[in-house]
Amino acid sequence: MTDPHVDTSTTGDTLDVAADKVSMDGRNNKAVKCELCQSTVLKIGAAKFIEKEFFLPHMKKKSASTEGDGDTLTEFWMVSDMFAFENVGFSNTVGTTKYLICADCEIGPIGWHDVNDKAAFYIALDRVKHV
């Protein structure tokens, strides 16, 4: 049975790709951690899985800041309150976007927030570990 909370219309197989990370109610069933330092970003059940296409620059430490390419990603954890995060930092605003980074090791961006939407903060599934 397909979970009604998970939108698979854009790829058709997203549920299969993220199935081990998404609970039946469409929330993260594993803790979300920084890939580099293992710091906890989100506790189990804190975020909802959504599909939304967004371009994120390549990940790098703050001190290694250089202009460059990135990735167009489609799978995100979304929280409606920034206080749902355990350990996330926010960049200065670029246009209407604030990029989210690991607050401990400053690697990122691991996600993003549009300042025009006060109730949506996104973490890319491909930029974090699930344990």
Molecular structure report:
The protein is mainly beta and 131 residues long. It has 1 helix and 11 strands. The chain has one helix at 14-18; strands spanning 32-34, 40-42, 48-57, 60-61, 70-79, 88-90, 97-102, 107-108, 111-114, 121-124, 128-130. The strands form 3 sheets. Strands 3-5-10-9-7-6 form a 6-stranded antiparallel β-sheet, with no helix packed on it. Strand 6 (88-90) and strand 7 (97-102) form a beta hairpin.
- Write the element-wise H/E pattern from the N-terminal end onward: HEEEEEEEEEEE
Q: How large is the radius of gyration?
A: 14 Å
Roughly what is the average pLDDT, rounded to an integer? 85
Main sheet strand line-up: 3-5-10-9-7-6
Strand content: 35-45%
Shape: globular
Characterize the biggest β-sheet.
6 strands, antiparallel
End-to-end Cα distance, whole Å, is: 25 Å
Estimated structural class? mainly beta
Count of DSSP strands: 11
Counted by DSSP, the helix tally is 1
Spans with pLDDT under 50 lasting ≥5 residues? 1-15
Helix content: under 10%
Write the layout of secondary structure elements.
Layout: H1 14-18, E1 32-34, E2 40-42, E3 48-57, E4 60-61, E5 70-79, E6 88-90, E7 97-102, E8 107-108, E9 111-114, E10 121-124, E11 128-130
Antiparallel strand pairs: 1-2, 1-11, 3-5, 4-8, 5-10, 6-7, 7-9, 9-10
Summarize the structure in short.
The chain is mainly β and 131 residues long. The chain is 4% helix and 38% strand. Residues 1-15 have low confidence and may be disordered.
